[in-house]
Amino acid sequence: MTAMNFRDEHALKGAFVSNKLLRLVDLIAEQGDDLLREAEITIPSRAVGCTLFIGDKGQVSLADIAKALDEPHQLSAQRVESLIQLGLLERRDDPKDGRRKVLRLTKNGKAQYQRLRVRLAEIEQAFTDLYDEIDYDLSAILDRVIDALHRTPLLERIRKAAMKAGASSKQKKAE
Asked: Are 88 and 112 a contacting pair, CB within 8 Å?
């Protein structure tokens, strides 16, 4: 059963795609926390990408993380700090550049990273099963939507529709 709210039932509900997507993100993050907890993984669900990147690369800077995850530096910094507080990550001087700090997983962080990789494979399969159930590869569709909106932003789409409607109206008057 779908949880409905005012926007979902409004005549202009199609304009509220972002709200629906945010609710989906929140739902997946909430269930993601449950999945991680059940596997005895203490990494917060919203820091999974950060942990995975560090674990895969071994040693990285904060700037490397922000760039790789395509997120603001401040957001990456918050995630890194939470992982440091949890004892999963440590910050060290870069042996190649004394001005730079590098991040790497602690012993506990490496153990969590290994558990995480196993759980992520299970989650990936769960999403594949979900996509089969709904008969859509949501991830692929979202990629297509993002690409399409980069090519033609919503404002441009509205302006094109208005111009088309204006041209159609003029044509009808001429007939």
From this structure: yes
